[in-house]
Amino acid sequence: MTDARVLVVDDEPGLVRALAINLRSSGWEVATAPDGARALDLAATWHPDVVLLDLGLPDISGLDVIAGIRGWSRVPIVVLSARQHGEDKVDALDAGADDYVTKPFAMNELLARLRAAVRRAAPGDATEAVVDAGDLTIDLARRRVLRDGEEVRLSPTEWALVDILVRHRGKLVSRDQLLREVWGPAYVSETGYLRVYTANLRRKLERDPSHPRHFITTPGMGYVFETT
């Protein structure tokens, strides 16, 4: 494997240095990040083929980094952590990690797992991390929305709706899909939830909530996010 990009996220300088040396000698292009904020920046701008991520970061949890990346990309994420409890592995995999390697580790095994993760990755799964919709800027990696340059505070449920609609922008997302993904399978008949939360989003994000430009209802079917 040559010319593949790996983003190494860890706050142990010695380990990062050793990993970078070994990875580069095996043909990888390497970028490093000492914390979660820098990791999210590089994931969005450098576009690695795989992310090697420690869970114990100094600023935000590695789980939050996984969630931030998964908001806009399916790049493979291999967790490299000293945490060996089963619950930690389950949490990481449920958050969207593709593999979990515990420290200490054998370099040959780690390299093999990285190669396997890249091979399994489906091409073209990533989208842009920042979506420009005129007066709105949606940052899928950092989970925030700017309106005319000012950040708008959204509840977790409001953000979940924005995230799904923006990732499928220009396409109809059915009511059933939105209810299932945001609230769960037991709520697929609760269409009133969508009306309430969509109205909230329009009030916060549309210039004229009564004549929305971005959050469009297709009666009886679902919703579409339009960028223009």
Structure description:
The chain has 228 residues and is α/β, with parallel strands linked by helices. It has two domains: 116 residues, Rossmann fold (3-Layer(aba) Sandwich); 96 residues, Winged helix-like DNA-binding domain superfamily/Winged helix DNA-binding domain (Arc Repressor Mutant, subunit A). It is 40% helix and 21% strand. Strands 2-1-3-4-5 form a five-stranded parallel sheet, with helices on both faces. Strands 6-7-8-9 form a four-stranded antiparallel sheet, with no helix packed on it. It has a three-stranded antiparallel sheet with strand order 10-12-11. The mean pLDDT is 89.
Task: Annotate the secondary structure layout.
Blueprint: E1 5-9, H1 13-25, E2 29-33, H2 36-45, E3 50-53, H3 62-70, E4 77-81, H4 86-95, E5 99-102, H5 107-120, E6 130-133, E7 136-139, E8 144-147, E9 150-152, H6 156-167, E10 173-174, H7 175-182, H8 191-205, E11 215-218, E12 222-225
Parallel strand pairs: 1-2, 1-3, 3-4, 4-5
Antiparallel strand pairs: 6-7, 7-8, 8-9, 10-12, 11-12
Strand order, biggest sheet?
Answer: 2-1-3-4-5
Q: By CATH's scheme, which homologous superfamily of the largest domain applies?
A: Response regulator
DSSP E strands, number: 12
N-to-C span: 41 Å
User: Helix and strand succession?
Assistant: EHEHEHEHEHEEEEHEHHEE
Number of continuous helical runs: 8
Please, what is the average pLDDT?
89
- Strand fraction band? 15-25%
CATH-defined topology of the largest domain: Rossmann fold
Q: What's the gyration radius in Å?
A: 20 Å
Q: Helical proportion?
A: 25-40%
Provide the low-confidence segments as ranges. none
CATH class of the largest domain: Alpha Beta
- Counting structural domains, the number is 2
Describe the biggest sheet? 5 strands, parallel
- Overall outline: elongated
